Amino acid sequence: MKKINTLFIGILSLMLIPLTSWGQRYLTETFPEVQVTSDLTYGVNATILLLPVVGQAIPEALKFDFYEPKNDDETERPLVILIHTGNFLPIQLNQSTTGARTDSVNVEIAHRLAKLGYCVAAIDYRLGWNPTAETQPERALGLIQAAYRGIQDTRTAIRYFKKDYVENENSYGVDTSRIVVWGIGTGGYVSLAAATFDKFIEVATTTTPPGKFLTDLDGNPATLEPMVAPPYNGDIYGTSVGVTPPTGLPPLPPNDTLCYPNHVGYSSAFQLCVNMGGALADISWLEDGDVPMITYQVPTDPFAPYESAVLIVPTTGDPIVEVQGGHQVATKANDLGNNDVFSGVDDAFPDFKVYTDGAKAGSASANHDYEEGLYPFIRATNIYGQEEGDPWTWWDPVIWSAIAHPSGLGTFHQVGLFNNADMSATKGRLYVDTIMGYFAPRAYLALNLTVGTEELLNDNQIKVNVSPNPAPDFVLVESPAEHPIQSLQVYDFNGRLVQNLQNIQNNLVRVDRNGVPPGLYLVKLKFEEGVIAKKVVFK
How does pLDDT run across 111-139, given as a tens digit for each residue? Predict the structure, then answer.
């Protein structure tokens, strides 16, 4: 993946617009209402979920719900692909109260993002594997194949919007150069993998431990094969056909289609990865130039390691495969420089520094130095003696109290409380408050939202003169006659908007001081061709 020019973005972010202005799009909620369009389709691919019933993989429509700000005039908005949790199994069948794109925390985060000015596609992805398989290699095989399908589907969703942009006049109004992939729980495993797994050979070259995604598929234990293979499972992007061999891949029959290509010819690239409570399949996948990453995790999460540990089946405790968690991922991302785009975030956004301080406090409690992009949520052992891993989660107690849990330990609601004892909407939303506060300024930098879809111009393109500068009372801003100024905003260096002139359509503008204190100010000038930023000093 192409390395981001973090120095350019950092300078641009600090020079063009002050970044802590409350009420500014993408930083604070500026839209009171959200429009939701449900049950849309972004692709079709083969699911094994009904294999025990129908004996083969069958096509499944891949659905999503689309959230956007209501009454928004912007025609190109950054897009978040939101991936739910669920252990790659359907809700309830996974013995959990969560596992759907309509999970409470999904809906909450999607609404929060839309109110900030983002568009959100809360997607379904293909489910199905056997967590109760008898042997560890069988469980690892099932999990990596399920995750592989999730990666393919995530990339299919990205390509769907890029295809719509080109072939359907961007009917969703998204900016396909500014895409976030945001995973919750199991979805976090998918988002991290989608951000890092960019060469098929990486299935065979894992380091922690080596060979963990290799197994005996041909009956010859002297040779081991990858647990996924493009001829059978499709390529890593889901853009090639995958069909089982004539001998079959038990329990799959011969010549069974496992992957249908979707939106071939479009890029699957995105610009920012967010992980809530997931882990990375192998730390070697994370390389120089991968996208910036933001991770939220409880260090004592019993089901997702914070460092490196063997993942277990939540319902049985059986081992599956070793994976690397949030602390290791963030440490390596920073060592590689992939998160350099976040540097200076507290200086640029002083109003949001409280969230960095919270992450630093959590890091200290977890006994490690702060890693930029990592927010550790510290949770005490609960009243049932259990550790908690997803304090942002909540569900409807009335609905889930009416359904008996298959463990025989009570209802789904009662069993859910074992690992989330004080579960409530209020608690979950408080965690989402922090999640959004930590995310917003970092996404602003990573996605270069300073200029939105406007092009940054320089003096060689449009010569702008500001005089006198420094000035005691006013400045005159002048542009060439053929480039009239459309609008002008003045910001102080704390990010506050102090003057806003609209509908100018003139090449000469007087900007009065209007009593602002002495100091350095930034003037943003909008032209038909793009924007220019100028420094102004009032004595």
Answer: 999 999 999 999 999 999 999 898 999 99
* Count of Cβ atoms closer than 10 Å to residue 308 Cβ: 17
pLDDT, tens digit (0-9, with 9 covering 90-100), for 200-242: 999 999 999 999 999 988 888 888 999 999 999 999 999 999 9
**CA gap 325, 279 in Å, rounded:** 4
Structure tokens at 21: 């202005």
Topology classification of domain 465-538 = Immunoglobulin-like (2.60.40)
The residue whose two tokens read 């204190």 is: 517
Task: Give the three-class secondary structure for 299.
Answer: coil
CA distance 152 to 158: 10
CATH 3.60.150.10 fits domain 6-446: no
Q: Which residues pair with 337 in a beta bridge?
A: none
What residue type is assigned to position 153 of the chain? D
Domain boundaries, the chain: 6-446, 465-538
- Say if residues 82 and 51 touch (Cβ distance below 8 Å): no
What is the distance between the terminal CA atoms of the chain, rounded to a whole angstrom?
A: 47
* Cα dihedral 17, 18, 23, 24 sign: positive
Nearest to 209 by CA among 321, 114, 60: 321
Contact 393, 428 (CB under 8 A): yes
31: amino acid identity, one letter:
F
Structure tokens at 142: 């099932």
Residue 323 to residue 335: CA distance in whole angstroms: 19
Residue 45, φ and ψ in degrees, nearest 5: -150, 175
* 183 phi, psi to nearest 5 deg: -115, 140
